[in-house]
Amino acid sequence: MRNTIILIFTLLFLGLYSMFFVVKEGQKGIVLRFGKVIRDDEKNPIIYNPGLHIKYPMIDTVKNLDARIQTMENQADRFVTLEKKDLIIDSYIKWRISDFSRYYLATGGGDISQAEILLKRKFSDRLRSELGKLDVKSIVTDFRNKLMADIRESLNYGTSENYTREHFNTENNLNSMAVLGIQVIDVRIKQINLPTEVSDAIYQRMRAEREAVARYHRSQGQEEAEKLRALADYEVTRILAEAEHQSLIIKGDADAETAKLYANAFSDSPEFYSFIRRLRAYENSFNKREDIMILKLNNNFLPFMNIKQDY
């Protein structure tokens, strides 16, 4: 009897415990009854906000879905512009669930990876279509504004010209993300690059242009250097010529002064002048030990060295 009572209380506790479920902060909950989403009287799915809620045990199943804004990073992909030029574009998308019931059914039970596969496919197709209408200049200068806004609107509200946001109907517009229960919050292009083969060719061309500019500047520098060297050589030659000219003037003045002194000395004492001149002549004549000079005893060159002998 006691065991039976314990069993009954246990079953009651488990039943009461299974009646309650918690939706965490940042999530939304939907309840499935026999595999179908519970709806209200107006056939709208019932969405449970964060908090404690009640369900039927053993009948209802709770599915919590992330209600926060998601960021999907797209791998860099190749796109073709209006001029048939290739661009490598790196982008990302911010999105959130707008219709939890539709999202749950469209993604096979709320599989976020499945949602992002579908979202990426539609985004890539839309971006490829829009970029094919623009040239590179327009893409580079306008992609942060109008281009991205147009892509976001087309993802959310479809591409048909007959539909506007006011007349939008998710049931008959299969081009929009609302069919998946998704709202695109923002789309951005992080980086635009040229393909490797194109960027390498541009790099080589830029390098050749820079080398041509460098050669031009080097030739200009060499020309200026030659001009400076020629000017310096001219200045050196001019200065040396001027110096030589001044030295000749000074030397001439010195020679004139010397001649004047000699003339004065000759006038005052011819014998002393003659004696000094002879001594200098001797000095210049006998400046080496191996020099030999044969003269007569009565020569005029050595009057002061004549030796008189008596025989």
Describe the structure.
50% of the residues lie in helices and 19% in strands. It has helices at residues 2-19, 100-106, 112-131, 136-157, 196-268, 270-285; strands spanning 20-23, 27-33, 36-37, 51-54, 60-66, 70-80, 86-97, 182-193. Residues 160-172 have low confidence and may be disordered. The longest helix has 73 residues, at 196-268. The strands form 3 sheets. A 3-stranded antiparallel sheet has the order 3-2-5, with helices on one face. A 3-stranded antiparallel sheet has the order 6-7-8, with helices on one face. The chain is rod-shaped and about 175 Å long. Strand 6 (70-80) and strand 7 (86-97) form a beta hairpin. With 311 residues, the protein is an alpha+beta fold. The N and C termini lie far apart (186 Å).
Approximate shape: rod-shaped
Let me know the number of strands.
8
* Major sheet: 3 strands, antiparallel
Helices and strands, in N-to-C order?
A: HEEEEEEEHHHEHH
N-to-C CA distance: 186 Å
How confident is the prediction overall: mean pLDDT? 80
**Helical segment tally?**
6
Low-confidence stretches: 160-172
* Amount of helix: 40-55%
Strand content: 15-25%
Radius of gyration, Cα only, in angstroms?
A: 56 Å
Strand order of the largest sheet: 3-2-5
Tell me the layout of helices and strands:
Blueprint: H1 2-19, E1 20-23, E2 27-33, E3 36-37, E4 51-54, E5 60-66, E6 70-80, E7 86-97, H2 100-106, H3 112-131, H4 136-157, E8 182-193, H5 196-268, H6 270-285
Antiparallel strand pairs: 1-4, 2-3, 2-5, 6-7, 7-8
